[in-house]
Specification:
Layout lengths: L9 H13 L7 H5 L7 H4 L3 H25 L2 E6 L6 H4 L5 E7 L1 H10 L6 E5 L17 E5 L8 H14 L4 E7 L1 H12 L15 H8 L2 E7 L2 H7 L5 H12 L3 E7 L3
Parallel strand pairs: 1-2, 1-4, 2-3, 4-5
Antiparallel strand pairs: 5-7, 6-7
Helix pairs in contact: 1-4, 4-11
The structure holds S-adenosylmethionine (SAM).
Amino acid sequence: MENKIANTLFIPFAARVFAAACFPEYFNDPVAVQLKNKIPPKFLKISSQYEMIASAARYYISDKVIMEFIDKYGKCNIVNLGAGLETVAFRIHNPNAVFYQIDLPEVIQLREEILPKNNNEVFIADSIFTTEWYDQIDKRKPTLFVANGVLMYFHEKEILQLIGNLKQYFPKSELIFDATTRFGIRCANFYVSRFGGEMAKMYFYINHIDKFIQKSQTRLLNAQTFFIDARRILGKKVNLITKFNMWLVDTFHLSNMVHLALSK
Ligand SMILES: C[S@@+](CC[C@H](N)C(=O)[O-])C[C@H]1O[C@@H](n2cnc3c(N)ncnc32)[C@H](O)[C@@H]1O
């Protein structure tokens, strides 16, 4: 694909497929599993057990937050920023929510070719950094923005600008995204670079969540480390290295799902 970030979209897709196939008691994604044969071969081989679970943990946590949001507000918008090949609208099939899947035009085209479309999904072919697509979202309804595996490919300045725009146009909305530390970004860049030179680099990290909250003028609803539930549910099923890595990441808060209210 033309966009280097778009080239990365099969990495989390493959991780979801394998995590769902190997650990259904933790993460289930039947539609993604059915599409396993669409994954280009080079994305099939490299991930370790830990990397697979680390990727799935994001969806495990954001799915829970999405379900709680729908339970709390009833009819609402779930806006998936940089949706890639996300099948969340099938994992959470709730007629109260409209799932807006936003990604670059070349990705939406690929999505239309290889993924089925659920009846509660709207595809938007645009950049998350423009504001033109905002008109397509029903602003009378509460909105939850979800960005899994996306924001780290940009710089902090761009993320703050994006949050500023979302705050201005969707005053009572929320945002959930994954964030790691400076050290975590180095590890993540090493992991992604193994899939080839055409993969994008990552830049955005959060070392101190309170400073980020101050800069973004938002309210922290929760910052949850990745593996609290995974360690409990998969404890006996995973190998020692995976267990150790999950403990390390949780203990030193290296990877978090950050849930913000986009208001003060
Ligand atoms: C690593 S993939 C993650 C995809 C998906 N969120 C997931 O978890 O499977 C990053 C995604 O961000 C998308 N992306 C990159 N820049 C974007 C932009 N400016 N606007 C919308 N999407 C963008 C890419 O096309 C790609 O699908």
